[in-house]
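thought: fold this chain, then report.
action: predict
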Amino acid sequence: NLQTFEKILIANRGEIACRVMRTCKEMGIKTVAIHSEADANSVHTLMADEAVCVGPAPSAESYLNMNNIMQAIKSTGAQAVHPGYGFLSENKEFAKVLAENNVTFIGPDTFAIDAMGDKIKSKLIAKEAGVNTIPGYDGVVENVEDAIKIAEEIGYPVMIKASAGGGGKGMRIAWNEKETREGFRLSSQEAAASFGDDRLLIEKFIDTPRHIEMQVGVLADSFGNTLWLNERECSIQRRNQKVVEEAPSVFLDSKTRAMGQQAVQLAKAVQYKSAGTVEFLVDSKKNFYFLEMNTRLQVEHPVTEYITGIDLVSEMIRVAAGHQLSYAQDQVGINGWAVECRIYAEDPYKAFGLPSIGKLTRYIEPTALHNVRVDSGVTEGSDISVYYDPMISKLVAYGKDRAEALHVMKTALDMYVIRGVKHNIPLCYEVLCNQNFVEGNFSTNFLPEVYPDGFHGKVLDAKEHNQLCAITCCLYAQQQHGNRQFLNQTRLPQLSGNINSWEIELNLAEKKVQAAVVKHNDHYEVLINGERMKVTTADINTPTPSFTINGEDPTIIQALRFTSSGLVHVQYKGTVFDIEVADRTVASLKKYMPEKIPEDIASLIIAPMPGNVVSVNCAVGDMVAMGDEVCIVEAMKMHNSLTASKDGKIKAIHCKPGDSISEDDLLIELE
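observation:
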């Protein structure tokens, strides 16, 4: 067994900290966790051999606080630091301070971090190394006027992005001068807040690009060996952040895989060692352009690990300890297919996902399934807080080919129980079922193209509508039957106890259905619209029961709750449906109930998500036009501009910069 390190400190939190600790434990290395006050009882804190608090909840005062992290390293005697991704993983100052203190940084040298972390420098180095680059301006954009001049020279549309950036922060696409002004302002604010560096650059925006990412292995060591580990397809994104990733890519062929060679050339040009990723954009004609290099372990590294069989974290630790890689290029193959869904605590019906906070009241991962891996840093009872990224986990499914991997993933999404916060499983499920996605015909513009008016969940066809109604009938019958069973019941029953048939009315997706259900010993018989169905069920009292209708493939659902007013919330094929269920007599009396009229909220500006108010750009008495920005709210590190939904005069302002706000708080009123 190779001698590496005795103790490693992981300068991160959440799922990636847990992921690194898992490999350390396998290698017999002791681990140290750092945590903020808010994370004192989080999974990564409890999983490590030692844990040190490095400051209050905000990242800037804890996970980015280099002095406190250095204190933690000294007090625990850690010999090396693994930075994970995000936070200090691509910070050259941090790598430099570690080197000065003789602590090993498990990642590349400061030269490579510096050269590749600056998008302007990295583009010039890539050009020199013979890598294809996107046409653009090779320098820092000084101010807004400068930005407009450059944008007009390159030609719209342009991409404005933070030089120090990543993770979709500080990036805007502009199609005209007005959008360039706005994009420049918002991007520089976001860049300053996220990276402490507001320098921006501008380049041509490649239309219908496919964001194909090439991993240049963790596989570069100090002995001149550099491997590339095939590609990852990361085109399904919202707000420049990835949602679904897979490896290999459906789109590439042996000719386009030549970008692997270019990725290796670039890594060698900066004497790269450890894990890294070179990102390329591929256009519809299969031309590829260098986008950026991430000098760290990628979020979506598990899909690469599945198809290559290489533990990337283990290789990073070996290389940092001065050993050679344990693989050669000819040992890196493509074995099978892997798909990853990033499961976020966010509401997919608002802008494809605005953050949702809360406590995970029920949480069961689908790890019992074969070929499913869940990288998470939460457990039942964990809090999803406003301070950090809202990712719950990375759900990874593997199969011998793409069809099998997608099938395993859908089952895993069905079996994944997450209660207490909103989550994006409905969106992930719909993406996997989309015909264009299944055929491999998609680009980074996939979500806006498929859902031009926003995402509204699954649309049921006639067969699915009947299926879901039949399942709901069985749930209702089960509940009614259960409600009649009492222990120690000594009173004489008023009705005979053996009622086993019910006539009910359902209302699902604005469509009323008359149904009858009969409970037999081993199955239910359901009659809907003259169609008779035999329904058998397994695990009906578990969170994920499965139903078999007329002997077809079983359908897994989650019955989330029954309300006293007769609403049943059922998660079916990813989406949660609210179904009204009532005895026919009760249903016939509903028409006498007064209807609740929804209030008019056009004159109110309401917080779409929890966060902090950055600025209020209006005063009481101001006239505003529809679409005018009235305030900016920061949530989970992203700046969101809130606008007036009609013309009017500002009547009242209920927030000020720096305020902490919750979802649905009233911020501003118009007359």
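thought: worth noting. Residues 337-457 form a domain with the D-amino Acid Aminotransferase; Chain A, domain 1 fold (CATH 3.30.470.20).
final: tokens above.
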